[in-house]
């Protein structure tokens, strides 16, 4: 399969691309806010060129030259990816523990703590909280990441399935599925008794390995080839599914996650997931 160097920026015509001149690249094709240069599969930008592109907040990647309709499945993380918040942190605000819980979340996302252990530790701090707080977080705090609705519209337009897999909670993934109309969702189940959170979880824990396993399960269920699956996320617990996918995208991600991804969106919106493809 042929490959392309893709550059993305909302105002590419006004960007200075002179750092690419020494590479003697073929004439690019323009597609919306992206430029696509044909390259070899082993092509790498020089460190100088990368630094200059990043200075101008241009996202770039070398990827297979594919049409968006060639994809069959996008698998996405939820917190800090499809949405702008970390739900568990915002729930913890209801018991005055947001700062304490957010610190644990950050360590987990950087890969410094075991995910399941850190999740159970954070959920335990929520014991006794009224379940109404969950709806308040959904209604008043949760926001979609910029470009999310556009990306999901494009998935529906081109017949690309979408699956939300979260280390967060089904309370939010189920409502997002109903609101946005995507096909599949998996997350952790908060135990609630008499209208109060117990501080425990029910059922299977959706951790890093579970995310990768579900990706493979649905890839096979939908009879897709590995290159037809894209996975995107921001934290360490997204790394296994990003590795497993044909195309792995790190969105505003931690350094460890960026290092494992085929493409990084450091400056743009989720609309740029669409922009990596023809």
Q: Can you describe this structure?
A:
- The chain contains 12 helices and 11 strands.
- The protein is elongated, with a radius of gyration of 20 Å.
- The protein has helices at residues 47-55, 78-82, 87-92, 98-109, 115-124, 132-141, 148-158, 170-180, 208-221, 239-244, 255-260, 271-275, and strands spanning 3-8, 29-31, 34-39, 59-64, 73-76, 161-169, 184-193, 196-202, 229-233, 247-251, 263-265.
- Strands 8-7-6-5-9-10-11 form a 7-stranded mixed sheet, with helices on both faces. Strands 2-3-1-4 form a 4-stranded antiparallel sheet, with helices on one face.
- It is an alpha/beta fold and 278 residues long.
Radius of gyration: 20 Å
Helix count, DSSP H or I runs of 4 or more residues = 12
SSE class: alpha/beta
Query: Largest sheet, order of strands side by side?
Result: 8-7-6-5-9-10-11
Instruction: Report low-confidence residues grouped into runs of 5 or more.
Output: none
List the secondary-structure elements in sequence, H or E: EEEHEEHHHHHHEHEEHEHEHEH
Number of strands: 11
Helix content: 25-40%
Largest sheet: 7 strands, mixed
Q: What is the arithmetic mean of pLDDT?
A: 94
Instruction: Please state the overall shape, judged from the principal axes of the Cα atoms.
Output: elongated
Strand content: 15-25%
- N-C termini distance: 14 Å
Question: Any chance you could write out the topology, listing elements then pairs?
Answer:
Elements: E1 3-8, E2 29-31, E3 34-39, H1 47-55, E4 59-64, E5 73-76, H2 78-82, H3 87-92, H4 98-109, H5 115-124, H6 132-141, H7 148-158, E6 161-169, H8 170-180, E7 184-193, E8 196-202, H9 208-221, E9 229-233, H10 239-244, E10 247-251, H11 255-260, E11 263-265, H12 271-275
Parallel strand pairs: 5-6, 5-9, 6-7, 9-10, 10-11
Antiparallel strand pairs: 1-3, 1-4, 2-3, 7-8
Helix pairs in contact: 4-5
